[in-house]
Amino acid sequence: MAPSPAPPDPVPTVADPPASPSPTPAPAAGATDLAGLWGDRVLPTLSGLTKAMYQSAELASLEGGVAVLRVENDHHRSNCERKRGDVEAALAEVVGSPVTVRLEVDGDGGSSPAPPSGGGRAPAAAPVSDDPDEHLAGYDVHDLADAPDAPLGGIAALTEAFPGSEIIEE
Question: What is the model's pTM?
């Protein structure tokens, strides 16, 4: 005698609620939705240094599993690179699917995550020289105003602040 087959799994109908709530996908629309997603749902889940580093970042877009975060400058971008994995994990948790973070310097027109080669940076400072005329930019030292004398100590500062006061030694 053959064993009886197992009963088929019940097929869920449209009216059946899902067994567990699925994460809501990130909104694809407006900047306020992205700002809310970033500020209200992602940043609070970050911890310590990661949260501090990404606090001033702006979520510019979230499309096709790629989140574009804008930061203030190239130095900040390179620091944020160190904690990018933590942010990708937090975004993936909120969105419900894997997310890759691409960091951009604000105002650079959508550059790649690689650091720009000289572009977008301030020109390098001129080398420092020991020539006093160069440091003074043509000014004569004798034409400069003298700085006021510094007080000699705490008691001198008090007697200057309270004229007519007397110091009583005990």
Answer: 0.46
